Every structure is written in structure tokens, then in C-alpha cells.
Amino acid sequence: xxxxxxxxxxxxxxxxxxxxxxxxxxxxxxxxxxxxxxxxxxxxxxxxxxxxxxxxxxxxxxxxxxxxxxxxxxxxxxxxxxxxxxxxxxxxxxxxxxxxxxxxxxxxxxxxxxxxxxxxxxxxxxxxxxxxxxxxxxxxxxxxxxxxxxxxxxxxxxxxxxxxxxxxxxxxxxxxxxxxxxxxxxxxxxxxxxxxxxxxxxxxxxxxxxxxxxxxxxxxxxxxxxxxxxxxxxxxxxxxxxxxxxxxxxxxxxxxxxxxxxxxxxxxxxxxxxxxxxxxxxxxxxxxxxxxxxxxxxxxxxxxxxxxxxxxxxxxxxxxxxxxxxxxxxxxxx
Amino acid sequence: xxxxxxxxxxxxxxxxxxxxxxxxxxxxxxxxxxxxxxxxxxxxxxxxxxxxxxxxxxxxxxxxxxxxxxxxxxxxxxxxxxxxxxxxxxxxxxxxxxxxxxxxxxxxxxxxxxxxxxxxxxxxxxxxxxxxxxxxxxxxxxxxxxxxxxxxxxxxxxxxxxxxxxxxxxxxxxxxxxxxxxxxxxxxxxxxxxxxxxxxxxxxxxxxxxxxxxxxxxxxxxxxxxxxxxxxxxxxxxxxxxxxxxxxxxxxxxxxxxxxxxxxxxxxxxxxxxxxxxxxxxxxxxxxxxxxxxxxxxxxxxxxxxxxxxxxxxxxxxxxxxxxxxxxxxxxxx
DNA sequence: GACAGTATAGAAACCGGTTTCAAAAAATCA
DNA sequence: TGATTTTTTGAAACCGGTTTCTATACTGTC
Lengths: 334, 334
What we know:
2 copies of one chain form a homodimer.
Chain A: H1 7-14, H2 18-25, H3 33-46, H4 52-59, E1 64-69, H5 73-78, H6 80-95, E2 99-104, H7 108-121, E3 126-130, H8 137-144, E4 149-152, E5 162-166, H9 168-181, E6 187-192, H10 196-211, E7 221-224, H11 228-238, E8 245-248, H12 251-263, E9 273-275, E10 292-294, H13 297-313, E11 321-324, E12 327-329
Parallel strand pairs in A: 1-2, 1-3, 3-4, 4-5, 5-11, 6-7, 6-8, 8-9
Antiparallel strand pairs in A: 10-12
The structure holds a DNA duplex (30 and 30 nucleotides).
């Protein structure tokens, strides 16, 4: 097995200089077609492949971007949200000829340490950070660094940070308004702690109540952690206060809530109406099917890649902030 | 913000040559303690960090390993198996000071193309391939390349390939024997198509039947794809043939099978006994709790990393093949 | 036909490390 | 004490590309 060919070998074989080979490789102008063809022929015949590391050292570009998910494996792998997100990001990365590397952390400390390595290694052209948390040390670390990055979800303070988010506030508002229009009055909510998206949805819900002069009842408000089980528990907390409808801030939790309602022989939507958020598989496996708010997760992911690509290509690029619309999907539960 | 420090800057600041700084950095012997201390002091004070790319170009070591999962996002994110596997690998990588990059593919073609890039990029010191499939183009591509790699699961032909697997054959045998010992006679099986692990479990089951002279009935054999739903469907296929026990080759499918049994008002284990495989969360959320076969997934992952580390450190290293034992966990369903 | 302007291509410098080589310094030995 | 070996160190080469600089060849213009 022959050793790896270098640009020098190609140059020698084609009877030109390294510089000319490089120019052909990078498609520069001012190369005589005859020479270009000759070099290209050698490249094709030998199957020469550029050494990316050497190229990176010279150009500072790797065409590799990273995706950071700090939520811990359990959360990631039990939540179809991430599957969809990663799929969207992965597809877009492919489209832009970027290689995607995923980094998953299991603890805050581990994450910070690894992030430090990732940043100083210099392999990555940029990062996408999927951070749900309101207060994220990773985010701060990243913001302080030189690394280009785009957030999935709104950053805690959004000045001068690129991000791609969906309109959670409006989604929450639409959800609550739908319930109000159906005539429900005691509308509860199951939200999630420490999560900015869930919080935005919550305030949308509050706004809707307000603008229809429906008083907010704290007893009709519970919080989970986006897991199915936490949805079931939260619903059990709400039940004694007799809501006639509940807006659950994720489909996953909504399917848990539904289980609780079934156990208590509460009919949905006749006794209690239920709304989810996400429009992901769990919503389609329940009985009755969940009425929910659709959020374009995959597009949010691909927009993030697009933004990152722009940041990489143009150092002067101002922060790019995207907020995608959410919309009502009426099925059976409300 | 000052520009990044290079080894040259450090050399100048410490009044020594680049070579000496490099020697200190790499902990070589033959460096006078006085000089070592002086250089170290400058490094500490300035917070100098080596440029990994330059180092990689010179040494051909990145300390980054990749994990390839070709199964497609949906499968990955709905199966707790992968969560556990990735966790094990991630922990071990950390332990060996390796950075882990995850690569997930959505189609065979995409995977092959990306793999080609990954291999020729030269960023990675090695790869871990989690391939369930019996016939995997990715595997062949990888085997043909120069890239060091370790498989999770037994490769199609295991000569001269490093892998880390669990003893699926024996696990299947133990499962069937447990059922036989409980006095069951019409023992069905739900296996999975195109999957080597499931196949090994199947042959273990066959062996157990054979050695107890229980005839194998093809009608009591169905196949799924490891998803919960496929387990439910497979069980529905089996039911008309009246098995008195069923060995399901994954907990996920077993929980689906359980749903079907419940729908048909079949009592478990009184009417039909049920066994799973994996000993993962699904087994603990069912009613009745699943009797199952435990496989040490996380350890299998960490062993793979350990093996890869050895392959990286020692070019002469012979293939390392690990097979970890599986064991019976008796709960309620059988 | 002289002159300016533009295309083309090679030589050499550079990216930031590691490693080889050779010289200088220190230690060991007779 | 002088010869010999071993440590210690810096200079220079190298990893495999890209890019700047410069020289030459080719255009077109008057």
C-alpha cells in the first residue's frame, strides 16, 4: 500500500509547482486551461486527496461544525424533540458540505471542561448550542470565547447573539386562545422549570387569559421537566382544583397527563380538554389524538446551520436572529 | 484582545528555543529542571495553549475519536439502548482524555459519503462503529480503509477485527432455559430482522429448545424491528398459535408485546409468560415488571473505547475482541 | 515598435507545532 | 588532567498545505 500522496507528489507528476496544484485545487482563476487540465488529470488518476489538517493549519477552516447538547443523555434520548432537531441540523449541514460532530455532556462540569478543549482545539469552524436552560454556564463560557456560535432557542439576553428560535410566546397564546374560544374557563397549565421556552409559552398563555379577562389561578399551574412521567404527576396535582382544560407545554408531558386523566376516569375532551405543544410523534399515538401547537423544529435547526455558515464565511456578519412561527393543530383532545 | 500565543512567543519570553519549549510541553527527559521550571512558569503565567491542529500535522494524533451510528435518528432516539451505549462510551472517552464526536447518518448513501470524508479528513485517531446490521456497507468501507476502528457488536466475519460485544447467544439460551425450567412448553420468540444480535439470541433460544428436546414451531416465531410498536404487532401474530411463553429479544418490543396481551385480556405470566432482553428502563415501567436478560451495554461501550485507545497507542496491537457475559434477571413476567 | 497592463506560474515564506542533528556543556572514567 | 561518554540545548528540517512576492509571457494601445 503506497504512502499517502502529497501535493508535492502531484506537482512532480504533473511537472508543475506546488503552488499551481494548490491553485487548481482551489479553483482559482489565472490558471491556463492546459495546465489546469494536466494537473486535474493527475489528481483524478492518482485519487489524490488533500490533507485536511495541513489545509486547516494554513487556512483556519475545517468545515466541521459542532452541536452541543448539554441536557444529559437521558433527556436527549427520551425526547423526540432532539431527534427532530438533530435531523434538521444534520440535513442542513450536509447541504452546506459541513461535517457535523455531536457533543453530549453528562454534567455541567464535564461540559465546561470539554467545551474548553473543543474551543481551544480549533477543529471546529463553529458551534450550535442547544440550550434550554435559563441560566447556562456553557452559554456564558461560549459567549466569552472567540468561537462563532448559534443558539437553538432564545438566549437569556439576546443582544448580539445569533440564534434560531420558534415563537413560543405566540404559541402559548394561540393555545390558550383556542381553549378560550371553545368556551373553557378554568384553564390550567403544565409548564417546565428552568426552561426559557416553557416560560415563554407560559407568558403567552397568561397574556391570552388577561386579554379575555380570565383571572389566573395559581392552583391551576404545575410544572414538570418535559418527561412523560412528570406530566402525569403534574396533572395529578392539578386535578383536585377541577380545571376544565389544561394547556401542557409539551406533547410528551401531555401524553403523561392523559394517562393520569384516564386513571381517574376523566373523559377527554368532554370533562377536561387537553392541549399539547410540539406536534411530535407522542401527539399522534394518544387516544384521543392531541390538539397541539406545531413548532418547526427541524427548520429551526437548519436555519441555525445556515446562520452559522454565514458567520463562518463572513467575519463581519452581524448576529442573525430567527424566530419561526408556531401554529395551531386541531385534533381530538381540545 | 491579544492574538493567540504561539510556541515561538513562549520561547522568546523564556529565553529558550522552540525545541526546548516543545520538550517541556511533552514532558521529555533530558531537560534541566531549572530550564523546565522557567518555561513552565511562562506557560502558566501566559495561559498558553498548544495549537492542536499544528500538533496534529506534526504528530498525526488528534485525541479525537468518532462514534458512528448508522441506524438513523428515529431508531437512535427512541431506543434507550443507544442512550446507555453512548453514555458508556462518553464516560470512557473522558477517562482516557479523548474527545468524542458523534456521527449520525440518515441513509446508507449519506453515511458512506460522510464516512469517506471523515476518514480522509484525518481528524480522528479512530472510530467506534455501532452497527447492528448483518450486512453493512459502512463496515466494509471502514474495513478497507486505514482507519483504526472497534465495532460494537460482533462483525459479520470476526477475523481480525476488533470488537466489543455481549454474549447474545448465551443470553438467548439462558432466557429460553429459564422458561423451560418454569415448565413452559410452547415457547414463542419475537426476534428482529437483519440484526446480528437478535439472530444470536435466536440461535441461543433454539439451542436451549434442542437440548431439552422441545420441537421448534415456526408459527411461534415472529420478527420486529426493536420498536415498541413492532413488538405489539409481532405478539398479535403469535397469539393465534397459543404460546404459553414468549421470549422477546428486547425490552422495548416486550413492552409492546405486553400491551397486545393486555388488550386481549391475556394474563401475564399466568396465561402467557414473557421475557425481555436488555434490562433497560422499559423493563421497569411495565406491569407486571419484565423478567429479562441483563446485558452490560455501558461496559461494552467503555471496553470498546479502551480497545481503541490501545490500537491507537500501539500500531502493532493485534485485534482486541471482547465478549461480555449476560445474565438472567427474574422479575414478575416469567 | 515601444510601453503599459494583465495573465500565468514558480520560488519562497508561512501556518505552529515536533523531531532530527549537531554542537556545547556537564559528568564520568582512567 | 585529559579523554570519553552522557546531558542538555539550539538550529534547522519537516508535516502538507496556502499565499505572497516576483519574474516572465502575453495582450492591447498609440
